[in-house]
Amino acid sequence: MNPQEPVIKTEKLTKRFGDFIAVNEITFEVYKGEIFGFLGANGAGKTTAMRMLCGLSTPSAGHATIAGFDIYRQTEQIKRNIGYMSQKFSLYEDLTVLENIRFFGGIYGLGDRQLKSKSQELIERLGLQAEAKKLVGELPLGWKQKLAFSVSVLHEPSIVFLDEPTGGVDPVTRRQFWALIYEAASNGITVFVTTHYMDEAEYCNRISIMVDGSIEALGTPKQLKSQMNETSMDGVFYQLARGAKRGE
Amino acid sequence: MVTLNNITKTYNKGALKAVDNVSFTVEKGELFGLIGPDGAGKSSIFRMLTTLLLPDGGTATVDGHDIVKDYKQIRSSVGYMPGRFSLYQDLSIEENLHFFATVFNTTVEENYHLIEDIYVQIAPFKKRRAGKLSGGMKQKLALCCALIHKPTVLFLDEPTTGVDPVSRKEFWEMLKRLKQQGITILVSTPYMDEASLCDRIALMQNGRVLSIDTPQGIIAGYPSSLYAVKATDMPRLIHVLPTYEPPFNSYIFGEYIHIDMRVMDDQPPIENLTHFLTNAGFEDIEVVSITPTIEDCFIKMLTK
Predict the structure, then answer these.
(1) Do B46 and B132 fall within a single domain?
(2) Strand B31-35 to strand B57-62: parallel, antiparallel, or no bridges (unpaired)?
(3) Are residues B180 and B61 in the same domain?
(4) Which residues of chain B does A42 touch, with a Cβ-Cβ cutoff of 8 Å?
(5) Element (H, E) at B204
(6) Nearest to B290, CA basis, from B276, B275, B269
(7) In this structure, what DSSP letter does residue B286 have?
(8) Residues B101 and B244 occupy one common structural domain
């Protein structure tokens, strides 16, 4: 990770819905190749903030650039330069492995020739040759996750957004998934991830914790623990979030 | 209070075994947890016990009633909170609660003492439609509606999934108070750290029960020794540990790496490991013997 190269840069980014301030002047930077954990209680404003960062929702005030593109004027370029994966939305279960790769690759703007070589390469790298023509719904959960993540970075984005990617996943598969995240980060892809597992907060280079629309803490897990005088991230989160006034 | 004997449930004409020969018993007044990831079979078990789904094989009873023959008695006596919010979105808090009380031939007043603790937290919004409530408030309302007819057994299917750690803690406080009122509770969760809050748990994976015991019993049954290791340069540590002889299983766990070692393999393990890591050039090495968590036990069962 390189602090000289911010790929996400926000300044007083704000989103209001009528009188309600969902996201309140958040300012932070995320660097190239960094694993950045974006934490907060339900209703803290994480999803709204993420939607703005992905170019899906126009901010009410403030500034931000994502992969060098302006969050107001260049949302289409932003969408082309990011990947997205969540537990709730990943792959189509009733399409085959190959069809899913082609479909999402196409959406991310890859041409026919690129799609052909990329999908072949991916299937070989994941060792899914025998499964290429099987429906995704028939794959074990661990494979589905690997595939979903690989598809979200197929177009070599600068940033990948992962929204609770490991919810409901068994502890062994969860750790295999983090190995993939580390690999992507070491290849220079910036990883922006939300999670409710506090042990996973430890695996991030830096984390921010949102409370009622504002970023209340930002730093390495080690810094936050020592600042708040806690031995675990669970304790840090509890101290900050229990003061929250609003629910989801 | 609840018994399952070799219960099996398959889908897709037998191609998918969702619940595979599961047996266990839940005692009266017990807080029993089904712990496991998605696809473990938790929801299928709940649907069979609440008579919404028929088993392919095996038998089960709830409060002495057979889940196939006596479905009417079971439906009128249990409380069920499914994983997906399933109250009437366009009825208010108050209306939902009265509706469920009426359906079960009772009144809100009659059993108010059971829900008072929880209801007072949402009562200020009682005229608001359920569809307009926050996630936390929906959850509290759903729990009130599942309790209002004074069920003999309360079935809660993943009530805390996707919920942040602070709200999860609050939810478990509510369950503890319900348990004190003598209600038998069956709850499922994918979060291993919630296991320790149950009286007994069944660890599940792919339709099978891996182990049933008290959380303490499962931890005490951990068959080998567990160590936590930390040093500068954790990414390199992850790659260096698998080169140790004799080999062991290691995996990240929060800020540490956990190492699972058979007791007889290496003596004295802490000194030998520290020596090994010093030779490999690590600094600030910390190696400690630790008590496994339920998550460690689960990993052990999956990697056996």
Answers:
(1) yes
(2) unpaired
(3) yes
(4) 134-136, 162-164, 167
(5) strand B200-205
(6) B269
(7) E
(8) no
- Any idea which residue has 């190995």 for tokens? A179
Q: How many CA atoms lie within 13 A of B32 on its CB side?
A: 22
Last residue of a domain, one of B179, B194, B219: B219
This complex has an ipTM of 0.84
Preceding omega of B268 cis (within 30 degrees of 0): yes
Portion of chain B with pLDDT greater than 70, in percent: 98
CB contact under 8 A, B163 and A246: no
| Sequence-distant (≥ 6) Cβ neighbours of residue B148 within 8 angstroms | B97, B100, B101, B104, B106, B108, B111, B114, B115
The SS3 assignment for B150 reads: coil
- For residue B181, give the 3-state DSSP assignment: coil
B162, B164, B254 member nearest A241 (Cβ): B164
> Which residues of chain A neighbour B304 with C-beta distances below 8 Å?
none
Q: Is B163 in Cβ contact with A196 (below 8 Å)?
A: yes
Mean pLDDT of chain B: 92
Are B98 and B104 contacting, i.e. CB atoms less than 8 angstroms apart?
no
Q: What is the CATH number of the domain that holds B277?
A: 3.30.70
Tell me, yes or no, whether A78 lies in a domain: no
Mean of the pLDDT values across residues A196-211?
93
Q: Which of A171, A199, A248, A168 is nearest to B188 (CA)?
A: A168
B23 Cα to chain A: minimum distance (Å): 22
Select from B219, B240, B266 the last residue of a domain: B219
Tell me: do B233 and B174 sit in the same domain.
no
Q: How far apart are the first and last CA of chain B?
A: 33
Domain that holds residue B79: 2-219
- Count of residues making up chain B: 304
Whether residues A196 and B164 touch (CB distance < 8 A) is answered with: yes
Q: What is the pLDDT of residues A129-188, one digit of tens each?
A: 888 999 998 888 788 888 999 999 999 999 999 998 988 888 998 998 998 898 899 889
- Are B154 and B259 within one domain? no
The range of the structural domain enclosing residue A117 comes to 90-156
Whether residue B194 contacts residue B173, with contact meaning beta carbons closer than 8 Å, is answered with no
